[in-house]
UniProtKB/TrEMBL annotation, chain A:
<feature type="region of interest" description="Disordered">
    <location>
        <begin position="1"/>
        <end position="23"/>
    </location>
</feature>
<feature type="domain" description="LUD">
    <location>
        <begin position="89"/>
        <end position="186"/>
    </location>
</feature>
<protein>
    <recommendedName>
        <fullName>LUD domain-containing protein</fullName>
    </recommendedName>
</protein>
<dbReference type="InterPro" id="IPR003741">
    <property type="entry name" value="LUD_dom"/>
</dbReference>
<dbReference type="InterPro" id="IPR024185">
    <property type="entry name" value="FTHF_cligase-like_sf"/>
</dbReference>
<dbReference type="InterPro" id="IPR037171">
    <property type="entry name" value="NagB/RpiA_transferase-like"/>
</dbReference>
<dbReference type="Pfam" id="PF02589">
    <property type="entry name" value="LUD_dom"/>
</dbReference>
TrEMBL record, chain B:
<keyword id="KW-0479">Metal-binding</keyword>
<keyword id="KW-0004">4Fe-4S</keyword>
<dbReference type="InterPro" id="IPR009051">
    <property type="entry name" value="Helical_ferredxn"/>
</dbReference>
<feature type="domain" description="4Fe-4S ferredoxin-type">
    <location>
        <begin position="291"/>
        <end position="321"/>
    </location>
</feature>
<dbReference type="InterPro" id="IPR004452">
    <property type="entry name" value="LutB/LldF"/>
</dbReference>
<dbReference type="GO" id="GO:0046872">
    <property type="term" value="F:metal ion binding"/>
</dbReference>
<dbReference type="GO" id="GO:0006089">
    <property type="term" value="P:lactate metabolic process"/>
</dbReference>
From TrEMBL, chain C:
<protein>
    <submittedName>
        <fullName>(Fe-S)-binding protein</fullName>
    </submittedName>
</protein>
<feature type="domain" description="Cysteine-rich">
    <location>
        <begin position="3"/>
        <end position="83"/>
    </location>
</feature>
<dbReference type="Pfam" id="PF02754">
    <property type="entry name" value="CCG"/>
</dbReference>
<dbReference type="InterPro" id="IPR004017">
    <property type="entry name" value="Cys_rich_dom"/>
</dbReference>
<feature type="domain" description="Cysteine-rich">
    <location>
        <begin position="127"/>
        <end position="221"/>
    </location>
</feature>
<dbReference type="GO" id="GO:0005829">
    <property type="term" value="C:cytosol"/>
</dbReference>
<dbReference type="GO" id="GO:0016491">
    <property type="term" value="F:oxidoreductase activity"/>
</dbReference>
Length: 187, 455, 263
């Protein structure tokens, strides 16, 4: 008997009496820009309100004056990135400006599906990350976020603030392996 | 060595014990603050517990559903009955990929299976990419906490390790600078991109996706740059629906560190074009635990580490005192299932204060299980002989009031008239190492009461 | 109402003043308790060591002793918790079921059964309350900090009602003291350290009298206080209430061991 069969047989032998699966939860909550901003600040990120009329490249140039290599599909990029871009090119990206689908007010997380990433590694390998988010797409909690996303697709990530660690003496350090900073450009 | 011996060694450094206790208590306080802020937190715990219990009650069906959906996504699913088979599967996959090195994000399962030494023995270079894991790997130590693997170390220790292995300046102990050094060092490893191993926080049956939660971004960076992704999961990681993630992601980070959510909550379902993804589903004693009605609830564990942060014993004895992959209260109920003899002192490394049960986000009755393991360990003859005999003697006395009254009097009178040096000799009386014995009164309560009734 | 007094073994032999205070406090509140002489122990020490099987005769003896009472009252939440929670392993006869339901911690009895939530009397001292885990997390006599911030529990409410008494604000509201039954011997190092840390919290925050509802925790803490010769006095809460209800001119208690620093 293969391990698969023997494991499944052991589960069938040992599993407890069936218990019901509770219905999907939703506890309401505040789907506000204020809550979202509060929590994103709490976890080390930043919210910047932008005027939809203002060209995005101006905003980005103003925010990252030093950035040379900008990857994005939302503005004229200086580094073209797609799913086949070699690692060496990705690694040199200073800023990635990508579209966030959904913001979560209770924790400052932003849903970024694969389709918005250009390359799966880009949101983590870029030194800095900016996510453009529509203020109308903020939901209150993770329950509503998953309800709105429905299917998490081939690959997708809730990104909540910049990469961080507290593995040395519980001292919080921003910029562990992923982006050193995270800005949500709210329009 | 047993837990008390290792714990005594830990507490002998009083200053470090204070630091360890206070650091983890601080994490517990952050957790409290996060929990108090969510009015429905207790309902969420109940929901999480119910979802996990339901899943365990139909685990075979969910495993098959998960496998089917994962396969449809283009993922190869492997099954491992034990640690040895798990390790062999992983090594085969690495060899098939023609790789000689890999990056690994945090996975308690691979720690449980002792994958690292196995791979190293077979010529594979393994790089743990979680900062804390990397620190303990460089020091050739085991993690001492589920979520904070290097919490037993001070920044000076890390500084020394990095000086030795990463060439940071001698005496450098600033966490910011040390983290930056690790970032640069590990980026090189990520960029090689052959094979990436991750753990799994949740496996969603209805989509075949695995969810990995990190703060550093190391899992995503590793997987998305590598040709082959191997996700290793214990079979209890399953949940039925994507919607269930709403419950668990709200509980996990708040319970673990007091964060509202982990920085990256990543859903991997299908490999990127031209790349491979494998999932290894591991039993390694879990089906046996499923068959123990008193202990199966331990399989609900989502590895948040809250029970460690709150445990007054763990905070003062350190993770290594448990000498098991999963330390702390949850480790003390998981370990006897793996090897009762070796870990027989762990269920006794608790005052049964119950704080672990109260913080557990999936409502595992940890302290009740500790109590139950004690009964089994005693029945299986794994108690030290002196303890066992003493308890038998005690019971026979306590069931006989006459002997009991006499014995109590002898003890009290003995304490009154024997010299302090004898009654408080540490060799005979561990109580007296740090504590005075009660001052024996002239009269017991029952003697006093007898006089009242006469009056 | 027939009330049986259960005085745990170590209180009987080493802290008779706690038994006396319990008896007298109940008497002042209008309850004449009876102390059945054949009582021994609840069996917890054996069971917590894993020897539940050996403890069964002790359980039966406890039930036989107290089956004839309407209530069983003990100045020790830990023993009460054991009777209620762990007497499920012997046959659930009517007597066993009755005793399990009828066994109360002293302050739970005073609060829930007698309906007393305030006590008159005076005790002009700063009192530090040690919340014992079995009373708090086991019997829910106070809410747990793991769930919500610790608010008024049964004992803190009674204490606050006493004239002149102020309660210490602790850094850690409800951390375990490290007694844990045989744990205090088998894990001596950690147990002692936990106790020292608890005592230190009280010292730092100005406690004069360290109290609680469970004498086993207090025995452990008192052992540390006396070893370190700290300016703290350890009293069971029954002793405080009993003293507070006496004439204010009388001494606080007549039965406190000598080595403790006098108030």
């Amino acid at each position: 008997m293969s391990s698969r069969e023997s494991i499944l047989a052991a589960v069938r032998r040992n599993r407890p009496e069936p218990t019901p699966l509770p219905p999907v939860a939703d506890f309401g909550g505040e789907a506000t820009v204020e809550q979202f901003t509060h929590w994103l600040h709490f976890i080390g990120g930043q919210v910047i309100h932008i005027d939809p009329a203002q060209p995005l490249e101006e905003v980005v140039r103003h925010l990252y004056p030093e950035a040379v290599r900008v990857a994005s599909d939302l503005l004229p990029a200086t580094v073209p990135v797609d799913a086949h871009t070699p690692t060496a090119v990705l690694e040199a990206v200073d800023v990635a400006v990508l579209r966030g689908e959904l913001g979560v007010a209770e924790n400052g997380a932003v849903w970024v599906p694969e389709a918005n990433m250009l390359h799966r590694a880009l949101p983590m390998i870029a030194q800095h990350l900016a996510l453009v988010l529509d203020h109308a797409s903020i939901v209150a909690t993770m329950h509503q976020a998953y309800a709105a996303v429905q299917h998490t697709g081939h690959y997708g990530v809730f990104i909540a603030g910049p990469s961080k660690t507290a593995d040395i003496e519980q001292s919080l350090v921003i910029g562990a392996h992923g982006a050193r900073s995270l800005v949500v450009l709210l329009r | 060595m047993s837990h008390p011996q290792r714990a005594a060694a830990f507490t002998s450094d009083a200053e470090r014990t204070t630091w360890h206790d206070e650091t983890l208590w601080f994490v517990r306080q952050k957790r409290d603050k996060a929990v108090y802020g969510i009015p429905e937190f207790q309902q969420l715990r109940q929901l999480a517990s119910d979802i996990k219990e339901h899943t365990l009650s139909r685990l075979d069906e969910y495993l098959e559903q998960f496998e089917q959906n994962a396969r449809a996504n283009g993922v190869t699913v492997h099954w491992a009955a034990d640690a040895e088979e798990h390790n062999r599967i992983v090594l085969d996959l690495i060899r098939k990929a023609g790789a000689t090195s890999l990056v690994k994000s945090k996975s308690m399962l691979t720690e449980e299976c002792h994958l690292n030494p196995y791979l190293v023995k077979n010529g594979i270079a393994v790089v743990d990419t979680d900062l804390g894991e990397r620190i303990v790997q460089l020091r050739e130590e085991a993690p001492s906490h589920l979520v904070l693997p290097a919490i037993h170390l001070k920044k000076e220790d890390v500084g020394e390790t990095f000086h030795l292995h990463l060439g940071t300046p001698k005496g450098e102990k600033d966490p910011q600078a040390l983290t930056e050094a690790a970032r640069l060092h590990l980026r090189e490893k990520f960029l090689i991109g052959e094979v990436a191993i991750t753990g799994v926080n949740f496996a969603v049956a209805e989509t075949g996706a695995v969810v990995v939660c990190t703060n550093e971004g190391n899992a995503d960076l590793g997987v998305n740059l590598a040709r082959v992704h191997i996700a290793c999961m214990g079979m209890e990681k399953l949940i039925p629906r994507t919607a269930d993630l709403g419950v668990f992601t709200r509980l996990l980070a708040r319970s673990a560190t007091g964060q509202p959510v982990t920085t990256y909550t990543s859903h991997f379902a299908r490999p990127a074009e031209g790349r491979e993804m494998h999932i290894v589903i591991v039993d390694n004693g879990r089906t046996r635990q499923l068959g123990r009605p008193d202990f199966r609830a331990s399989l609900k564990c989502i590895r948040c580490g809250a029970c460690m942060n709150t445990c007054p014993v763990y905070r003062r004895s350190g993770g290594h005192s448990y000498d098991f992959t999963v330390p702390g209260p949850i480790g003390a109920i998981l370990s006897p299932n793996i090897d009762m003899r070796q870990h027989s002192s762990l269920p006794f490394a608790s005052t049964l204060c119950g704080s672990c049960t109260d913080v557990c986000p999936v409502k595992i009755d940890i302290h009740a299980q500790l109590y139950k393991w004690r009964q089994i360990i005693a029945q299986e003859g794994e108690l030290p002989a002196a303890k066992k005999l003493g308890m038998k003697l005690l019971s026979s006395v306590l069931a006989r009031p006459g002997i009991y009254r006499f014995g109590g009097k002898v003890a009290r009178e003995g304490l009154r008239f024997l010299p302090h040096g004898l009654t408080h000799a540490a060799a005979f009386n561990p109580w007296a190492k740090a504590r005075e014995l009660p001052e024996p009164p002239k009269q017991s309560f029952r003697d006093w009461y007898a006089q009242q009734v006469v009056k | 109402m027939k009330v049986g007094l259960f005085i745990p073994c170590y209180i009987d032999q080493f802290y008779p003043q706690v038994g006396i205070a319990t008896y007298q406090l109940l008497e002042k509140l209008g309850v004449k308790a009876d102390f059945p002489r054949q009582q021994t122990c609840c069996g917890q020490p054996m069971a917590n060591t894993g020897c539940e099987q050996d403890a069964k005769p002790v359980y039966r003896h406890f039930v036989d002793t107290f089956a004839g009472y309407d209530y069983v009252v003990a100045p020790s939440g830990s023993c009460v918790y054991h009777v209620r929670k762990h007497y499920d392993v012997v046959e659930q006869t009517g007597a066993v079921q009755h005793v399990r339901q009828a066994t109360y911690d002293l302050f739970d009895f005073i609060t829930s059964v007698m309906g007393v939530t305030e006590l008159p009397g005076r005790f002009p001292h700063q009192v530090g309350l040690h919340l014992s885990c079995h009373g708090q997390r086991g019997l829910h006599q106070a809410n747990e900090s793991e769930m919500t911030p610790v608010r008024e529990g049964q004992l803190s409410r009674l204490l606050r009602s006493v004239d002149g008494l102020t309660l210490t604000e602790l850094n850690r509201n409800d951390e375990c003291c490290g007694f844990g039954g045989t744990f205090c011997i088998t894990e001596e190092a950690v147990s002692a350290r936990m106790g020292q840390d608890r005592v230190q919290d009280h010292v730092l925050n100005g406690t004069e009298v360290l109290t609680g509802g469970d004498m086993s925790c207090l025995m452990h803490l008192e052992g540390i206080v006396r070893r370190r010769q700290l300016p703290l006095r350890v009293m069971h809460a029954a002793e405080i209430f009993n003293a507070a209800l006496q004439q204010p001119s009388k001494p606080v208690s007549t039965y406190v061991p000598g080595a403790v620093a006098a108030l």
